[in-house]
Amino acid sequence: MQDRRKRVYIKITILILSSILVTTHIIKTTAAMELSMKDDTYFLPVNQAHYVLQPSILETIKREIIEDQEKNDAKETILEEIEKPSVESEEKEKNQINEKPIVQPDNSLRGYLNDYVLEVIKTYNYRERSYPYLLNKDYDNYNGVTATLHYKNQVLLKAHPSGSRASHCSGITFEVFFKAMQERNQQLGISVDDFNGMTWDELYDFVLTWYAALGPKTQSNIAIAVEKYGIGQQIKRLEDAKPGDFIDISRENNTGHTAVFLGWIKEENRIIGFEYWSSQDSTNGISYHKEYFNVTGAHGRKYGNVRIDKVYIARILPVSQYRAFK
Question: Which of 116, 124, 132 lies closest to 100, judged by CA?
Answer without folding.
Answer: 124
